[in-house]
Amino acid sequence: MPTDQRQALNPRTGMDVDSFREDIRQHLHYTLAKDQYSSTEWDKYKSVVLAVMDRLHDRWIDTQQQYYDQQSKRVYYLSMEYLIGRLMDNMLINLGLQDVAAEAIEEVGFDYDEVREAEIDAGLGNGGLGRLAACFLDSMATLGVPAIGYGIRYDYGIFDQDIKDGWQIEKPDMWLQYGYPWGVERPQKSYKVPFYGRVKATEDKGGRLHFDWVDTHNVTAVAYDTPVPGFQNDVVNNLRLWKASSDEGFDLKSFNQGEYIEAVRSNLLEENISRVLYPNDKVFKGQELRLKQEFFLVSASLQDAMARFKKKFDDFRKIPQQMAVQCNDTHPNLAIPEMMRMLMDEEELKWDTAWDIVTKTMNYTNHTLMPEALEQWPISLMSDLLPRHTQIIREIDRRFLNTVHMTNGDSNRKDRMRIISNEMNPRIRMGNLGIVGAKKVNGVSELHSDLMKKTIFKDFAKHFPEKFTNVTNGITPRRWLRQCNRDLADLISDRIGKDWVTHLDQLKEVEQFAEDADFQETFKEIKYRNKKRLADHIERTSGNVVNPNSIFDIQIKRIHEYKRQLMAVMHAIVLYNRLRENPNADIEPRTLLFAGKAAPGYTMAKLHIKLINNVAEIINNDPDVSSKLKVLFLPDYSVSLAEKMIPAADLSEQISTAGMEASGTGNMKFALNGALTIGTLDGANVEIREQVGEDNIFIFGQTVDEIEENRDSGYSPRKLYEEDEELKQVIDQIHEGYFSPSEPDLFHPITKALLSDGDYFMVLGDFRSYVDKQEEVEACYKDEFEWNRKAIINVANMGHFSSDRSIRDYCERIWDVEV
Ligand SMILES: *Cc1c(COP(=O)(O)O)cnc(C)c1O
């Protein structure tokens, strides 16, 4: 290479192909000490990551310095989960480097797809809540919001799912096995997080009481930072994840007593705090270690935030102008008493001053109305682990209850509103604490926010009407269209320009092409290619052959009774029975794909997985139907698998019992990628229907009100079973072992739940309406022009569901931050 060209290269920062290529080579050689012969897929991937990181660092440092200089109000997003998935494509796209990197990678002699696939998903979340936090990070950076995401750096994220004989098997997720090249360890950014101990009260000369939390057992939180670039705007925010390590490297006393090994033995108990993500989605389990994790996150993050504040300010009353804290569900709601403790016990503010600050700074997002999900910690456990916080919570409760009065002779009102329940073994209700201590409380879709005010938080909505608001969830169009469906993104950009990537409302302009023959043709080809790609992936990874000309009917999400995977598999059985009855029935070929993890302790959900796999086994091996119907359960659902499946979907299954899915975000991803939705009027499905129009979505089933009426008027699943022949046949088959011939009783718990235990999720109540709606779906699919027209209209009307819009709403309605 000529010298002048060599000088122009800047392998560390150059945004051109030559610089990038040289940087990859240098990292492979000088950082990893490998060459083209000895390097593994991981080495290749890592050398690319390091080259990308080089291009992030200047921007990262500059962004943080700017926030500091401009005294920007910071948004502190506290979340126990971040389901971020792979980062390479996301980083390259946001840096505007994807094509440059692709060329550079090929020039080095690596394969781009292999490099991408070498990355292990960061699966630090269960499902929607964690993925939402990840989409919000992307949007906050893209909008230039001075935000920091705080979370826990679990050694093990969500378990890997294997399927063995149709059953889910959990395996540890070893995502850190070879290190995490997107993370920078900051050993000097660490804080002591205290636990246990006792509260010592002393009176000062002026007669004022001081409370000291003493004799604590301390754990150290160490920061690990991951850069979060905005979309081509040179902003790089920070995701700071805390890892637990034992406080003192060794115990000096034992050391001096000659118990050397004892003294330096690693304090496993402390390090356990960041060991593993709890794999429960929407169920509260009450384990002490989980409470420790929650306080660990809150304490380290608030210490960090407060240290940042104190660098510039000494008047704590300025906190609400400098900080907005957002709690992603109740999990971080100990931030309320913790901030009170810091302000009173450490900064010596009076209660009223501290309370005024806290209640102008904290905010809480509610994610579910389901009672089993609501966190309620036994006060015995809390007072043992966090004695000072328990005192403070008691005092918050006492003062709050003084403001609550009985209305209309409703003597239970006070008891319902207490933070600490009035029972033999009192529990701390984290939702109530969140409402009392927060400035704003939001639900995550219009319907959910409404129901929140009418049901679980009715009393609070009357008491604090000004606190309640809605922010409908969203998804980042960078990952969920530009990245996962490049061909569709390019088609759209070709017709309406590229600005939609950050202004998703502009997709509306695509609507004019809904009936355009050219556009439809290309749109159809892209969908076919995506389906083919998924089919190839399925064949490569499982050996199963699927027909890309069939309807790809997809339900992917956590396995949960309220999400009703059971209803979808029952529909497959209906189609199967119809085809068995009449192999020449005019049924459109269909491939029903499921994926999702069940919580390891959720027996019924695991049985649903087994049922899906057994039904698949019978159907797929029946030569009379296998050309028309195929059912598959793809193992190990993850962000990366979602990115492969969603662009290939024709039909999106969003079939939860009305009132139970707070928002859903999977529903948005599918529609944005040109799938049509079959769904209930639940969560954000309601808003999707408003946006795309009722003719362009397949809505079925009971509404929230109808569900309630039905329950009140003595819902009888058995009557429905008796009166619907097709339904009866399906249930009988499941019950009698048609799908489990070697173990005929295997699925009895399922039929019992449906017929004898009241069918709480009203699968039978919506079954007929669902099956009939599926016939409409099929008829529509046969009319290719109509189907594509509707699909294009769906894409065109997804602007509302950009997480950029969600973040703008948070800025305006909650954080009081300008964007
Ligand atoms: C979007 C997403 C979810 C949430 O899906 P819902 O259908 O809204 O429950 C869960 N897991 C992953 C990996 C996702 O990408």
Fold blueprint:
Blueprint: H1 3-8, H2 17-31, H3 41-69, E1 74-78, E2 82-85, H4 88-95, H5 98-108, H6 112-118, E3 122-124, H7 128-142, E4 147-152, E5 160-164, E6 167-171, E7 184-195, E8 198-203, E9 209-214, E10 217-229, E11 236-246, H8 252-256, H9 260-264, H10 268-271, H11 288-312, H12 319-322, E12 323-328, H13 335-346, H14 351-358, E13 362-365, E14 376-378, H15 379-385, H16 387-401, H17 413-417, E15 427-429, H18 430-437, E16 440-443, H19 446-454, H20 458-463, E17 468-470, H21 477-483, H22 486-496, H23 517-542, E18 551-556, H24 565-581, E19 590-595, H25 603-620, E20 629-633, H26 639-645, E21 651-654, H27 666-672, E22 676-679, H28 685-692, E23 698-699, H29 704-712, H30 717-723, H31 725-736, H32 748-755, H33 763-782, H34 784-796, H35 803-815
Parallel strand pairs: 1-4, 1-12, 4-11, 12-13, 13-16, 16-17, 18-19, 18-21, 19-20, 21-22, 22-23
Antiparallel strand pairs: 2-3, 5-6, 7-10, 8-9, 10-11, 14-15
Residues 83, 127-128, 131, 557-558, 637-639, 642, 664-666, 669 line the site of pyridoxal-5'-phosphate (PLP).
The CATH class of the largest domain is: Alpha Beta
Mean pLDDT: 96
Q: Nearest-angstrom radius of gyration?
A: 28 Å
Number of domains: 3
Give every kind of bound small molecule, once each.
Answer: pyridoxal-5'-phosphate
Q: Can you count the helices?
A: 35
Using the coordinates shown, work out and report the CATH topology of the largest domain: Rossmann fold
The proportion of residues forming helix, as a percent range, comes to 40-55%
Low-confidence stretches: none
Q: Strand order, biggest sheet?
A: 7-10-11-4-1-12-13-16-17
Instruction: Identify the quaternary structure here.
Output: single chain
- Judging by the overall fold, what is the CATH architecture of the largest domain? 3-Layer(aba) Sandwich
Q: DSSP strand (E) fraction?
A: 15-25%
Shape: globular
- Terminal Cα span: 46 Å
